[in-house]
Design brief:
The chain is of the alpha/beta class. It is built from 14 helices and ten strands. The chain is globular and about 55 Å long.
């Protein structure tokens, strides 16, 4: 059953690919934006999705090029903006390389949305990092959608990803409020699960390192929320479809310390050299209050389920061997 036409930006990405998979299974016609629609190798996984042959179109758009999303978005009832820059390598100016594209890219997409008379709702992928960066002296209370990360703290400690997501989301809210655009934002925690693209995404690479005995990738987590990739995709569709959905939605199944996580994983996968000790970080204790999302009837997969699915994927792809 056709549910109408929607646009997904950054279509080849880890989350966007899962979102497109779920949208197609739900009966939507999907317009996905990519940098190069002719890159068959990078996009092959999307064309293998059920329903892709009949209800998926991939079109070119550049995040920082104003107007490049106009044709993709025009005629769509919904827009899912998932595309966002991530620093995958050391750089001389990380602030300029991640902040400007994140903010300008979001505004470019929203300016195209403003031109579209068919638009019903925009769903923006933000991050739980937009609520977590706060002073260590902050009270130990559960963080909810009313919480915002401290811009000053992000600047001071050069937490560029959190800063980029915070400033981009704030810019989105200002623009949409000023232009009467129905916006809902989703704030996922650390996303775990199988990757549909052929290349190993950064989160799967982090998990693989941990399962092989490395601590460096997870060291900075300290205490972290985790959520299954499929739950994040389903959450986006839920808040798009639910007429009463509004504002921000934290999307996280469980919050655990590194030691709690690796204790669980060591017991579950005893043949893997999973580390048990991590350097203690001076960071505040926190929980994430997901009552708002759960009130819409949403149920999260468990920590065990998300890591089981991720481990099975890593094994299937030949990245990991279980004795």
């Amino acid at each position: 059953m056709m549910k109408g036409k929607v646009c997904v930006t950054g279509a080849s990405g880890f989350l966007a690919s899962w979102l497109i998979k779920r949208l197609l299974l739900s009966g939507y016609h999907v317009i996905g934006t990519v940098r190069d629609p002719d890159d068959d190798k990078k996009l092959a996984h999307l064309w293998k999705l059920e329903g892709a042959k009949d209800r998926l179109q991939l079109v070119k758009a550049e995040l920082t090029e104003e107007g490049s999303f106009d044709s993709a978005i025009f005629g769509c009832a919904g827009v899912f903006h998932t595309a966002s820059p991530v620093l995958g390598r050391p750089t001389s100016d990380p602030k300029a390389e991640i902040l400007k594209p994140a903010i300008d890219g979001t505004l470019n997409v929203l300016r195209s949305c403003k031109k579209n008379p068919s638009l019903r709702r925009v769903v923006l992928t933000s991050s739980s990092s937009t609520v977590r960066a706060r002073d260590v002296s902050s009270p130990n209370v559960a963080l909810d959608e009313s919480s915002w990360s401290s811009v000053e703290l992000c600047e001071q400690y050069q937490i560029w990803y959190a800063l980029s997501k915070t400033l981009a989301e704030k810019a989105a809210w200002e623009f949409c409020n000023n232009n009467n655009i129905d916006l809902v934002t989703v704030l996922p925690s650390f996303v775990i699960g199988p990757s549909l693209p052929q290349h190993l995404c950064s989160t799967a690479a982090d998990v693989l390192g941990l399962l092989k005995g490395e601590t460096i990738r997870f060291q900075y987590h300290g205490r972290m929320g985790y959520v299954h990739i499929d739950d994040v995709a389903l959450c986006h569709i839920l808040v798009y479809e639910h007429k009463d959905a509004h504002g921000r939605y934290l999307c996280s199944s469980t919050v655990v310390d590194n030691e709690e996580l690796t204790s669980l994983l060591s017991a579950r996968y005893p043949t893997l050299p999973i580390p048990r000790k991590f350097e203690k970080l001076d960071r505040p204790y926190y929980e994430l209050d997901t009552t708002k999302l759960r009130s819409l009837g949403f149920k999260f997969k468990s920590l065990e389920e998300m890591f089981d699915d991720c481990v099975a994927y890593l094994k299937e792809q030949g990245h990991l061997q279980l004795l």
